Protein backbone atom coordinates (compact mmCIF):
# COMPACT_ATOMS: atom_id res chain seq x y z
CA UNK A 1 0.00 0.00 0.00
CA UNK A 2 1.27 3.47 -0.84
CA UNK A 3 -0.29 6.92 -0.61
CA UNK A 4 0.59 10.40 -1.80
CA UNK A 5 0.81 13.82 -0.26
CA UNK A 6 1.06 16.68 -2.77
CA UNK A 7 2.48 20.15 -2.23
CA UNK A 8 1.80 22.81 -4.86
CA UNK A 9 4.44 25.56 -4.90
CA UNK A 10 5.34 28.65 -6.91
CA UNK A 11 8.97 27.55 -6.86
CA UNK A 12 11.37 25.56 -4.71
CA UNK A 13 15.15 25.40 -4.57
CA UNK A 14 17.92 23.97 -2.44
CA UNK A 15 18.18 27.09 -0.27
CA UNK A 16 15.32 25.76 1.90
CA UNK A 17 17.00 22.41 2.67
CA UNK A 18 18.80 23.66 5.84
CA UNK A 19 15.56 25.24 7.16
CA UNK A 20 13.66 22.04 6.29
CA UNK A 21 16.13 19.88 8.24
CA UNK A 22 16.22 22.30 11.16
CA UNK A 23 12.43 22.13 11.40
CA UNK A 24 12.37 18.32 11.04
CA UNK A 25 14.79 18.02 13.95
CA UNK A 26 12.32 19.79 16.25
CA UNK A 27 10.21 16.61 16.36
CA UNK A 28 11.89 14.08 18.67
CA UNK A 29 14.60 13.10 16.22
CA UNK A 30 17.85 14.01 14.60
CA UNK A 31 17.59 13.47 10.88
CA UNK A 32 19.79 14.12 7.90
CA UNK A 33 18.76 14.11 4.25
CA UNK A 34 20.89 12.26 1.69
CA UNK A 35 23.88 14.57 1.03
CA UNK A 36 23.41 14.46 -2.77
CA UNK A 37 19.76 15.54 -2.71
CA UNK A 38 18.78 18.50 -4.89
CA UNK A 39 15.33 19.70 -5.87
CA UNK A 40 16.77 20.30 -9.34
CA UNK A 41 17.27 16.69 -10.35
CA UNK A 42 16.00 14.25 -7.73
CA UNK A 43 13.32 11.74 -8.65
CA UNK A 44 12.54 8.51 -6.81
CA UNK A 45 13.39 7.29 -3.31
CA UNK A 46 14.71 10.03 -1.02
CA UNK A 47 16.49 8.56 2.05
CA UNK A 48 17.06 10.10 5.47
CA UNK A 49 19.25 9.04 8.39
CA UNK A 50 17.15 9.15 11.58
CA UNK A 51 18.04 8.92 15.26
CA UNK A 52 15.30 9.27 17.87
CA UNK A 53 15.57 11.65 20.81
CA UNK A 54 13.58 11.15 24.03
CA UNK A 55 12.17 7.82 22.90
CA UNK A 56 10.47 5.47 25.33
CA UNK A 57 11.15 2.51 23.07
CA UNK A 58 14.36 0.90 24.35
CA UNK A 59 15.04 -0.70 20.95
CA UNK A 60 15.35 2.74 19.31
CA UNK A 61 17.84 4.23 21.77
CA UNK A 62 21.33 4.91 20.45
CA UNK A 63 20.49 3.47 17.02
CA UNK A 64 20.31 5.15 13.64
CA UNK A 65 17.71 4.18 11.06
CA UNK A 66 17.18 4.82 7.38
CA UNK A 67 13.82 5.68 5.91
CA UNK A 68 12.29 8.09 3.45
CA UNK A 69 9.72 8.29 0.68
CA UNK A 70 9.41 8.52 -3.08
CA UNK A 71 9.80 12.16 -4.14
CA UNK A 72 8.79 13.65 -7.50
CA UNK A 73 8.62 17.21 -8.84
CA UNK A 74 6.38 17.97 -11.82
CA UNK A 75 5.13 21.05 -13.58
CA UNK A 76 1.67 22.29 -12.63
CA UNK A 77 -0.64 24.67 -14.50
CA UNK A 78 -4.03 25.33 -12.94
CA UNK A 79 -5.55 26.53 -16.21
CA UNK A 80 -4.54 23.31 -18.00
CA UNK A 81 -6.05 21.29 -15.14
CA UNK A 82 -9.29 23.30 -15.32
CA UNK A 83 -9.42 22.88 -19.11
CA UNK A 84 -9.07 19.11 -18.72
CA UNK A 85 -12.05 18.87 -16.33
CA UNK A 86 -14.26 21.42 -18.12
CA UNK A 87 -17.36 19.58 -19.38
CA UNK A 88 -17.90 19.93 -23.11
CA UNK A 89 -20.99 21.81 -24.19
CA UNK A 90 -23.76 19.68 -25.57
CA UNK A 91 -25.12 20.36 -29.03
CA UNK A 92 -28.21 22.01 -27.54
CA UNK A 93 -26.09 24.20 -25.22
CA UNK A 94 -24.05 25.33 -28.23
CA UNK A 95 -27.17 25.97 -30.35
CA UNK A 96 -28.75 28.00 -27.54
CA UNK A 97 -25.41 29.76 -26.96
CA UNK A 98 -25.56 28.92 -23.25
CA UNK A 99 -22.61 30.19 -21.18
CA UNK A 100 -20.04 27.64 -20.12
CA UNK A 101 -20.35 26.55 -16.51
CA UNK A 102 -17.32 27.63 -14.51
CA UNK A 103 -15.56 24.61 -13.03
CA UNK A 104 -13.29 24.67 -10.01
CA UNK A 105 -10.30 22.48 -9.34
CA UNK A 106 -11.06 22.46 -5.60
CA UNK A 107 -12.93 25.60 -4.55
CA UNK A 108 -12.62 29.35 -5.07
CA UNK A 109 -10.27 29.93 -2.11
CA UNK A 110 -7.85 27.09 -2.87
CA UNK A 111 -7.98 27.69 -6.62
CA UNK A 112 -6.88 31.30 -6.02
CA UNK A 113 -3.79 29.97 -4.20
CA UNK A 114 -3.12 27.29 -6.83
CA UNK A 115 -3.27 29.86 -9.64
CA UNK A 116 0.29 31.04 -8.83
CA UNK A 117 1.72 27.53 -8.38
CA UNK A 118 4.02 26.22 -11.10
CA UNK A 119 5.13 22.92 -9.54
CA UNK A 120 3.59 19.98 -7.71
CA UNK A 121 5.81 17.99 -5.34
CA UNK A 122 4.70 14.42 -4.66
CA UNK A 123 5.62 12.64 -1.42
CA UNK A 124 4.73 8.96 -1.84
CA UNK A 125 4.97 6.77 1.24
CA UNK A 126 4.26 3.12 1.93
CA UNK A 127 3.75 0.83 4.87
CA UNK A 128 6.85 -1.33 4.33
CA UNK A 129 8.82 0.96 6.70
CA UNK A 130 7.15 2.40 9.81
CA UNK A 131 9.01 5.72 9.53
CA UNK A 132 7.87 6.57 5.99
CA UNK A 133 4.68 8.24 7.24
CA UNK A 134 6.70 10.36 9.69
CA UNK A 135 9.20 11.48 7.08
CA UNK A 136 6.71 12.19 4.27
CA UNK A 137 4.03 13.90 6.35
CA UNK A 138 6.47 16.14 8.24
CA UNK A 139 8.45 16.90 5.07
CA UNK A 140 5.39 17.81 3.00
CA UNK A 141 3.96 19.95 5.81
CA UNK A 142 7.25 21.76 6.46
CA UNK A 143 7.93 22.41 2.78
CA UNK A 144 4.37 23.69 2.39
CA UNK A 145 4.96 26.03 5.33
CA UNK A 146 8.40 27.22 4.11
CA UNK A 147 7.27 27.88 0.53
CA UNK A 148 3.78 29.17 1.37
CA UNK A 149 2.57 26.24 -0.71
CA UNK A 150 -0.69 24.31 -0.76
CA UNK A 151 -0.67 20.78 0.66
CA UNK A 152 -3.25 18.09 0.04
CA UNK A 153 -3.94 14.43 0.65
CA UNK A 154 -5.63 13.57 -2.67
CA UNK A 155 -6.89 10.11 -1.65
CA UNK A 156 -9.45 11.76 0.66
CA UNK A 157 -9.49 15.21 -1.03
CA UNK A 158 -8.15 16.88 2.14
CA UNK A 159 -6.58 20.32 1.74
CA UNK A 160 -4.53 21.53 4.70
CA UNK A 161 -4.36 24.94 6.35
CA UNK A 162 -0.74 26.13 6.54
CA UNK A 163 -1.27 27.91 9.89
CA UNK A 164 -1.20 24.64 11.83
CA UNK A 165 -0.08 22.15 9.17
CA UNK A 166 3.20 21.03 10.78
CA UNK A 167 1.79 20.61 14.28
CA UNK A 168 -1.27 18.79 12.87
CA UNK A 169 0.95 16.45 10.83
CA UNK A 170 3.06 15.68 13.91
CA UNK A 171 -0.03 15.02 16.02
CA UNK A 172 -1.43 12.61 13.41
CA UNK A 173 1.82 10.70 12.96
CA UNK A 174 2.28 10.40 16.76
CA UNK A 175 -1.21 8.89 17.01
CA UNK A 176 -0.20 6.38 14.35
CA UNK A 177 3.17 5.59 15.98
CA UNK A 178 1.60 5.27 19.43
CA UNK A 179 -0.91 2.77 18.03
CA UNK A 180 1.92 0.43 16.99
CA UNK A 181 2.91 -2.41 19.27
CA UNK A 182 6.69 -2.92 19.65
CA UNK A 183 6.48 -5.95 17.33
CA UNK A 184 4.60 -3.91 14.67
CA UNK A 185 7.52 -1.58 13.91
CA UNK A 186 9.27 -2.24 10.58
CA UNK A 187 12.64 -0.49 10.62
CA UNK A 188 15.94 -0.61 8.77
CA UNK A 189 19.15 0.32 10.56
CA UNK A 190 21.33 2.94 8.89
CA UNK A 191 24.51 1.39 7.47
CA UNK A 192 25.71 4.36 5.42
CA UNK A 193 24.53 6.06 2.28
CA UNK A 194 24.20 3.63 -0.61
CA UNK A 195 24.83 5.59 -3.79
Structure description:
The protein has 6 helices and 7 strands, in the order βαβββαααβαββα. It has 195 residues and is of the alpha+beta class. It has a 7-stranded antiparallel beta sheet with strand order 2-3-4-5-1-6-7, with helices on both faces. Helix 1 crosses helix 5. The model has no long low-confidence stretch (mean pLDDT 89).
List the helices and strands and how they pair.
Elements: E1 2-9, H1 17-24, E2 29-33, E3 44-52, E4 65-75, H2 78-85, H3 91-95, H4 108-114, E5 119-126, H5 132-147, E6 150-153, E7 158-159, H6 165-179
Antiparallel strand pairs: 1-5, 1-6, 2-3, 3-4, 4-5, 6-7
Helix pairs in contact: 1-5, 5-6
Query: Number of helical segments?
Result: 6
Assign the structural class, choosing from mainly alpha, mainly beta, alpha/beta, alpha+beta, or little secondary structure: alpha+beta
Q: Which stretches are poorly predicted, pLDDT < 50 over at least 5 residues? A: none
Mean pLDDT figure: 89
Strand count: 7
Helix content: 25-40%
Distance between the termini: 26 Å
Radius of gyration: 20 Å
Element order: H for helix, E for strand? EHEEEHHHEHEEH
Amino acid sequence: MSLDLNVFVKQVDDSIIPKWMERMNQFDMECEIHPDFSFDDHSGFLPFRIKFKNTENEEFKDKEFISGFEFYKDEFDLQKELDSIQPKKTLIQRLLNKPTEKVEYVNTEIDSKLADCKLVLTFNWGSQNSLELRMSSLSSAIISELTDGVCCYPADDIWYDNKTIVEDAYKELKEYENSLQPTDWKMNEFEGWND
